[in-house]
Amino acid sequence: xxxxxxxxxxxxxxxxxxxIGLAIAKRLAEDGADVAVxxxxxxxxxACVQAIKANGQRALPISGDVTVSAxxxxxxxxxxxxxxxxxxxxxxxxxxxxxxxxxxxPDETFDHVMAVNARSxxxxxxxxxxxxxxxxxxIVNIASVSGLSGSRGIVAYTASKHAIIGMTKVAALExxxxxxxxxxxxxxxxxxxxxxxxxxxxxxxxPELTRRRLFASIPLGRYGDPAEIAAxxxxxxxxxSSFMTGSALVVDGGMIAS
Length: 258
Ligand SMILES: NC(=O)c1ccc[n+]([C@@H]2O[C@H](COP(=O)([O-])OP(=O)(O)OC[C@H]3O[C@@H](n4cnc5c(N)ncnc54)[C@H](O)[C@@H]3O)[C@@H](O)[C@H]2O)c1
Prior knowledge:
The chain has eight helices and seven strands, in the order E-H-E-H-E-H-E-H-E-H-E-H-H-H-E. The protein is of the alpha/beta class. Residues 14-15, 17-21, 39-40, 43, 65-67, 92-95, 116, 142, 144, 187, 189-190, 192-195 line the site of nicotinamide-adenine-dinucleotide.
């Protein structure tokens, strides 16, 4: 029988309780990986664990906050105890933050969004690379089209996603000697709760209006499906992308081509 692309690999996906993270965890399991999944203590990882097991793979749910170093140390300790190794890290957890012009954007909120989206990626790469350095590995950081261009009202989100692309490049250079590849993925609006909240915030009386406006900004005329982002992550996590490191792959229905 043909070997699956991620057979015998151990992966960690953050923010895996729903949305893109859930789709990534499912896809990595379909491709043969055992998957540790991390999310906030308030989130239920049950559906994600079920989906991984339904593919015949082992699952390890971990409660934690990606902004906290001790939670990363604890997660890595659990993964090594349970699986003995870590081969793939997907830094997916993220928040959009409020929509507000810079002049009114609250200082503490800026710091919080930066912590969840950017500090988390720094911490994840730092702690995971220590485990991966003897065997090599693949790290995939979920950035955004907001890491490549600016949008009014989301200064912290945009700064954090640009930071992820910068950190991806630094890590690719530093980790190359350890055979750890590091790449980023830049999705356009994708059909998850994050984008539904955006629709309800921008046009509370008629969310469909924002949906139509966003569709119009995407040449393929629709949101991405979480499975489409997961397919790109699976590619970057696998040996199919063995000569790729330091890149930021755009998965955007043509959005930034225009
Ligand atoms: N949905 C989109 O349109 C879109 C577009 C581009 C990029 N992205 C990025 O994709 C990633 C996933 O987004 P999504 O749309 O699935 O969002 P989502 O809100 O549906 O899911 C995010 C997940 O991250 C978890 N999370 C949040 N803060 C956390 C923390 N401090 N510690 C641990 N887990 C935490 C949440 O609990 C949730 O399960 C994010 O990094 C987001 O910026 C999303």
